[in-house]
């Protein structure tokens, strides 16, 4: 949760490592249905503008122009409750005046707390970088873990009490300046006859994204997953009878020396009596590891060293 302004307007913000901006729906959002479902930000008498009313836009759909959030520059005191409450005076954010009626319409969050890399094209300073510039954080690191339906964000380091420190391994980012992308050695299916079907060979690029619920993969990989599970991929989420979860093949992911095993119950979502695989087609043909993968790890994002670390969560803290 975050709070904005001296009146401490409270919002639930989704942690998003694919976006650098903090944005919240504005009371000036008149035409987007999404805004009517969310808590909205209202400027109050104590609002102190920085005289910048220029428009902003942030993409929440990996390059799809139909997924642009647009708005105005906002300027308020930000309070973030993580391991401790951080108070950041004069924080820039975006008052969203138009939000597309897509996936975000159904999310419980009001807005987004962006933790992607900043760029010279962004007109506002992301809160994380503002905190670093003002000496509010000990390290240029943040970490994220998932327990059930909730995510836990730690700014300025990581919580050693939540992880098996001996299991922690770091992996360097690629040269992509904007996204948290690492090289993954392999992604493969363990067939029932003990043969491996490779979905990703010889180090493929994978984006680690806290805002993606599932795993996004190229269409060829989805067809292979479907075939190995006696299904067909038809461009939509693959549904299965819930009683067949135990029959799904195992998926193995190698990142350097770290192995992640996804059993059937790890990559299936159940809604009522319906079950579906948590794999979707990537919008740009590359891999995105979202919560389906991150459920297995405590993830550390090192901004200064441009690395991502994965550690096994302690069972008592998972």
TrEMBL record:
Species of the source: Dysdercus peruvianus
Keywords: Disulfide bond, Hydrolase
EC number: 3.4.23.5
BP GO terms, sorted: proteolysis
Any one GO molecular function term: aspartic-type endopeptidase activity
Protein origin, superkingdom: Eukaryota
Name the UniProt record assigns to this protein: Digestive cathepsin D CatD9
Similarity comment: family membership: Belongs to the peptidase A1 family.
């Amino acid at each position: 949760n975050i709070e904005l302004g001296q009146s401490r307007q409270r919002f639930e913000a989704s942690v998003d490592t694919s976006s650098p901006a903090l944005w919240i729906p504005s009371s000036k959002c008149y035409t987007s249905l999404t805004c009517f479902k969310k808590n909205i930000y209202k400027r109050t008498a104590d609002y102190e503008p920085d005289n910048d009313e220029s428009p902003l836009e942030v993409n929440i759909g990996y390059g799809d122009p139909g997924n642009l959030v647009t708005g105005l520059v906002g300027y308020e005191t930000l309070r973030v409750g993580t391991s401790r409450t951080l108070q950041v005076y004069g924080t820039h954010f975006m008052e969203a005046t138009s939000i597309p009626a897509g996936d975000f319409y159904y999310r419980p969050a009001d807005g987004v707390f962006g933790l992607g890399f900043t760029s010279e094209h962004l007109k506002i300073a992301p809160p994380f970088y503002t905190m670093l510039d003002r000496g509010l954080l000990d390290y240029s690191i943040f970490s994220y873990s998932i327990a059930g339906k909730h995510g836990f964000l730690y700014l300025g380091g990581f919580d050693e009490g939540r992880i098996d420190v001996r299991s922690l391994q770091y992996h360097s980012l690629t040269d992509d300046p904007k996204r948290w992308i690492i090289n993954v050695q392999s992604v493969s299916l363990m067939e029932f006859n003990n043969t491996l079907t490779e979905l990703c060979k010889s180090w493929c690029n994978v984006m680690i994204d806290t805002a993606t619920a599932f795993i996004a993969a190229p269409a060829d990989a989805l067809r292979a997953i479907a075939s190995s599970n006696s299904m067909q991929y038809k461009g939509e989420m693959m549904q299965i009878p819930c009683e067949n979860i135990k029959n799904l093949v195992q998926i193995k992911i190698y990142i350097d020396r770290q192995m992640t095993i996804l059993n059937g119950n790890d990559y299936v979502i159940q809604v009522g009596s319906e079950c579906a695989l948590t794999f979707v087609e990537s919008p740009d043909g590359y891999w995105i590891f979202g919560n389906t993968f991150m459920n297995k790890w405590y993830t550390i994002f090192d901004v200064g060293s441009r690395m991502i670390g994965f550690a096994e969560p302690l069972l008592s803290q998972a």
